[in-house]
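Re: that chain you flagged

S.,

Sorry for the slow reply, it's been a week of failed gels. I finally had a moment to sit down with the sequence you sent. For the record, here it is as I used it:
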Amino acid sequence: MIFRIFLILIFLLIFKGPEPSDNSILFTDDFENTFLNLNHWNYELGDGCPELCGWGNNEFQIYTKENVFIRDENLVIKATKQGNKYYSGRITTKDKIEFQYGTVEVKAKLPTGTGVWPAIWMLGHDIDDIFWPLCGEIDIMEYVGKTPGKIHTTLHTKDSYGQSINTKVTTIENIEDGFHIYKMNWDKNKIQFSVDDTIVYTFSPANKNKINWPFDKPFYLILNLAIGGEFGGFEVDDNIFPQEFIIDYIKVYENSKL
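Prediction finished late last night. Pasting the structure tokens below so you have them in one place:
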């Protein structure tokens, strides 16, 4: 009897299915190098002018390469003030890492103080052809320092953009302390957001069309730290600088990991 059980165990070890692997990962960056991997990322620089001055939201910052760097295997987007000017950073995966459906997972630590506006978000890959908001926008995480403790998750579409009704504001005590995990799970039926594995919002229109669901195509990732503006607020506490938006890792899975 014991021998038979032994043979069964050996059989199961030999013929069991494959172990989970990283094959389901579409993209990952642990920021282990000392430099930003430009095979994956692009810098977006300046103040958005002349096409999109203030980056479309009357934001104050000027984006530079110097305000984006890697330290201790973390990506740091640093907001600074010099004289009467604000500087920060913004990077994207446009034309390099674009994908349709999956789970985005980002472990990050927020900056704090009135005026900061860090974001983890996505835009449709065809933005240059059909423009915003028809291209669609997925805001995985937005935080504004003027309202501590609140995380915003939002969808912008042709039928609801700017102050979109497709949004959820979640109050999370001490969200500013330490690192937290922000996720977005996206398939053909829904887009679902979570913070630290707690689901906070699900978007799933009953009758989907290109006006309310421009999400059946590839999107690309954006990480940035804005200062002020329509959403961040026009009051900025200059005593808070410098501030850092710190990202430990970013992963994109082919299948849902929520």
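What I noticed first: Residues 197 and 258 are 7 Å apart (CA to CA).

Talk soon,
D.
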